[in-house]
UniProtKB/TrEMBL annotation:
This is CDP-alcohol phosphatidyltransferase. The lineage of its organism: Bacteria, Pseudomonadati, Pseudomonadota, Alphaproteobacteria, Hyphomicrobiales. InterPro entries: CDP-OH_P_trans, CDP-OH_PTrfase_TM_dom. GO terms for molecular function: phosphotransferase activity, for other substituted phosphate groups. The keyword Membrane applies. It comes from Methylocystis heyeri. One of its GO terms (cellular component) is membrane. Gene3D superfamilies: 1.20.120.1760. The keyword Membrane applies.
Amino acid sequence: MTTSRLNTSFVAVHERILLNHIVERLPQWATPDHLTTIGLWGAAITGIGFLLCNISPNFLTLVAAGLAINWFGDSCDGSLARHRKIERPKYGFLIDHSSDLVAQSMIVIGLGCSPYFTLCSALLVLSLYLLMSSYTYLRAAVEGVHRLSYGGLGATEFRIMIALWPFVPLALGPGVVSGRLFGYAGIDVVISLLALCTYVIFVFLVRQDLERLDAEEQNEDNVVRLHSVSQPGTRRAVESRAATEAEGVLSYTEAADRK
């Protein structure tokens, strides 16, 4: 599967420089599959770290380490393949994004099981992530463009937000998570409203893309018709077919009149 990559996230430029610096110095025995596995282990460490935060907030250091490992493996696997010119487009696309879905699920569910979030909000965030991921894969299949970020936010920014969020309830107190609003957990209400906004934006993006694709396909059809008519042989064939159809209609009309 050959697609072009589009990354307009806030840290994309500086991240690309860093990734190029890293992959140039990786040992020859390291492979993209090794890095993908490392990324999955990083996600597992992150999830476990969040669970252990129920015992002590000191385990946030384990969370940070896991997120860093996940970033290293997930970001460098494809970069290494491109650097060494050993890309496997179909295999790489499938294994990379399958592992991404598993990794992000472990991270977000781990956050939901920590004292810094609720499981309900975590599952809602995960559903939004899966929704946008599905949309990204659909666009890659339809247009051949793999968009890695939306609104300046990509996977790296997502990890940064995950890493920073626990410090909000630590600084402001447990009421950030346990507080009630309209009879529900306040954080669940806030996340639900943000999710609703995201769904509205999603519908708008899909409609916008459908209108654009419809216009592009209609223009392509018009160009093909004009090109066909402009060719002498094709024009004669079109005229001959039109004349044959007209004769058929005339014969049918005459026969009907005789009856």
